[in-house]
Amino acid sequence: MTRQRAVMLTGFLLVISVGTLGYWRWTEAHTTNPPVQAAALHARLADYWKALRDIGPRALGSAGHQHALTYLQAQFQALGYQVETTTFDVSQTHDAGSLILVGSDRFPATALEGSGPGDQSGPLVDLRRASNTSDISNAPVSGKIVLLSCHPGRQGAMVNQIFQGGGFGVILADTCPAQALDRGDGTPLPVVVLSASAAQRLASVPGRTVEVTAHVVQSTGQGTNLVAFRNPSGPEVLLTAPLASHAESLEADAGVSGLLTLLDTARRAATTPLADQLWFAVLDGDVDGHAGEENFVADHRYVLRPTRAALVLHRVGLGSGPLQVQGHADLVKVARASRQGILAQAVPSGDQQSALDRWEVRTLQLSRASAVVPRTDEMLDLNRVSDTAMFIMGVIPKLLQQSWTAPPICDGIGKQDRRC
């Protein structure tokens, strides 16, 4: 064996040894579950909701943010789950009054999280009928300002595809049920959100030069992820919901109904064998939990190896329509078989860009379809939250019965590694 190969082998074995030691220390440090408190098993959704509503907005860095973390930790521990919290730095952009100009017409807009500041102008191209990255790649976006409709779970990939194709800016029509807009990767180019009605008026002038001005300010804060579990070896099914909310109000935000569903599901599972197979992750950093998801995956890649599925909860207690699921085709198939009447859509693998997707954890996003766009927390329906938790408790055993082989890990267990 040459010296170079010997050094490479030694380095590889060292990485494996350090990773294995880290995993052993993780499991050794989490061997004792707290006792289940009888009162916690009889908690009501209305009690959870009152407590979170009294806490108020959970904006990053606010008192409400810390109080919500403390409350959630206490509830999970009372149900017999261990709780781990990890902190990370978060770079945020906030809208400071963005604008779209078409001749003398002015359209107030809002810069999306991740948008770059500044001005861009170009001919408007209406791609509201585009539904995936393939539609974008076949469209003439170079040098254009692109108008898109909302597509939860695929928005980030579609925006990224526009910029890779030479697009100068993106205008997102706010057509999503319950404002289910997500961000793409950070970009120096403007990405702004426009109301559905204003977008319709804007679309009547395709080809005209549009000027997009994204006014944003940047700040740095500290996010905190919270993970509740019984089995430290890793989850077979992961459930996630975002923690943070906007500063000004609860705004029927994604997090509040997702957090309530996590607590209700944890309570229902607490006295069943499922409790040893589930992890509950409260993801921080932004109102959709994307930054928290990135850090969660980076911190837990090794223990995510046995994870069959991740259920991502997104405004599941809002809207007037049926439960809506979208994600990995195999999971969508199980969801369809579990309940009639749900809206189910498989998302092509190339359109799934979350950190969990990139680590090849199959994801299924749960939301509620709606003919209207809920804007206030008054539209939260606890019956829909309860219904979502019941659906989850019914679909998880079917997911566990589904034939599945964990993807192998290629290059050790460091933060930069990927599954094969």
Topology:
Elements: H1 3-28, H2 38-41, H3 45-55, H4 63-78, E1 82-95, E2 98-102, E3 105-111, E4 118-126, H5 133-137, E5 145-148, H6 155-164, E6 169-174, E7 191-195, H7 196-202, E8 209-214, E9 216-229, E10 237-242, H8 254-269, E11 278-283, H9 290-300, E12 309-313, E13 323-327, H10 329-338, E14 343-346, H11 355-358, E15 363-368, H12 382-401
Parallel strand pairs: 4-5, 5-6, 6-7, 10-11, 10-12, 12-15, 13-14
Antiparallel strand pairs: 1-9, 2-3, 2-8, 3-7, 4-8, 9-11, 13-15
Helix pairs in contact: 3-8, 8-12, 10-12
**Alpha plus pi helix count:** 12
CATH topology of the largest domain: Aminopeptidase
- For this structure, the quaternary state is single chain
Side by side, the strands of the main sheet go 1-9-11-10-12-15-13-14
Strand residue percentage: 15-25%
The description of the largest β-sheet is: 8 strands, mixed
Percent range for helical residues? 25-40%
CATH architecture of the largest domain: 3-Layer(aba) Sandwich
Q: For this structure, what is the CATH class of the largest domain?
A: Alpha Beta
Instruction: Provide the low-confidence segments as ranges.
Output: 11-19, 177-184, 248-252, 371-378, 412-418
